[in-house]
Amino acid sequence: MNIPGRTARHDARGRIAGSAAWSYGRLTALVISSIAIPTGLLAQQLKPETQRDFDCYVQAAETRMNAQKPFVRADSDGDLVARLANGERVETILANGKNPHKLAGGQLYDWIGTVFIPNVKLERLIRMLQDYDHRQRYFRETVSASKLLCQTGGHFGYTMTLMEPAVIDLESEVTWYKIDEHRWRCNSYSVNTHEPGKDHGYLRRLYSYWRFSEVQKGIYVEAETITLSDEFGSMARTIGSLMGINPEKSLKHSLASMRDSVMESGVTIPSLPVGLPACPAPYRIGACPSATGH
Length: 294
What we know:
The chain is α+β, with helices and mostly antiparallel strands. The protein is built from seven helices and nine strands. The chain has one domain (about 45-265): START domain (Alpha-D-Glucose-1,6-Bisphosphate, Chain A, domain 4, 2-Layer Sandwich), CATH 3.30.530. Helix content is about 25%, strand content about 30%. A hairpin with a 2-residue loop joins strand 2 (about 100-105) and strand 3. The two termini are about 20 Å apart.
């Protein structure tokens, strides 16, 4: 999910003139632990060939996801249901063959994760996940700060600071879709990333796709994450994995934290704030050039 100027949208995020004036189209909202938003930070620009390969991969992946039946794997996989039954297990699988996928100037990881959350209503989980001002409460292992920037219906813009695979400031857009009373999905796209200090190239893009299916005894959550990093050799990947730089591990942490937080008793989920700026049109991925276009 190509609109004219999408690359410029990555690159031309300008400055924030102060807390009283905010222009989403020029935003580079990079959150630090105090929730301050620094100025003068530009979005990271991919090499054209890396951007092309990434967009082509994502386009094919979204086509596959949109054609997916059943809605979540647990709808037809009895063995998976049995393994997840007590809500204590998070299961991951390769989404599209062995990781990492080699791109021109980068490497891509594509994982699917599933968790079952017992004795929780879908309405509560959706309210928690749309509380973008407090993601550090709900995802303690992976997020240290977050801030909601805009909202238009089910379309949100927000920033957060990740603690995995490194301290990385991320600006994302997410759009929610209600399928019916018992099923939701959402797509989240990073539109800006920044690693404070030395840039190691651990994370250039993070796209995630979420499905939520409520059944009598709880909720099945299925997520697919597509992450892009710079190109690393096998030794660097091994060392990075030992240090915690591992997209599969991060996905497992996110699903486990989601489960534990929404099940935690006594947790009050605030209402969405009022008076937020409207978001622009939802983000769209770039078009994949045809083979004849090269």
